[in-house]
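Service request form, structural biology core

Requester: graduate student, group of Dr. S.
Request type: structure prediction, single chain
Budget code: on file
Notes: please return the result as structure tokens.

Sequence provided:
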Amino acid sequence: MNRKVHNVSYSYSDAIIDQADASVDDEFERQMLHKSSTVTVKWMSWSILLTAAMLAWALRGPDTLWTVLICLAPLVATWIGVAWLRKSVPTPRPVALSRIEWVALIFIIVVWLAGIAVRGFGSSPSFTIAAAVGAMMGLLATIFLASYIPTRQRRKDIQRLNEHADSEED
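Core staff response, request fulfilled:
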């Protein structure tokens, strides 16, 4: 499974996989390590979102907006991971959240946005209303895009990978 460093298609993401694979002795341990990584990503995402919500209440003024930057980390990491994965297999289907996850997600986001509105802008009524409307529109757009884009991308990836496999057979 080790790749040569001089291989053009070798990337830092490939090196991460090689490092993880070198830390285990057999296929079962490898499979469990990668499952553990999936669990880690989920918990890390929740932890980051919760940290952003808490910081929105701890910071003052426009500094509360920096909490948005914290939430970009798991999005960027996910994008990099999926881009690496797409070299070999189609984009995964969107993961369906459970009802309790939806409730927790909405609650944390509301607490987070309330912290930004109250601590960041002195609970100005005009800002609070604008933030609430913007947040609702953003949430609806995100829900739509989070289900539509990966599904469409998966179809395109399957077609691309099939065409690539067909061209290799020729």
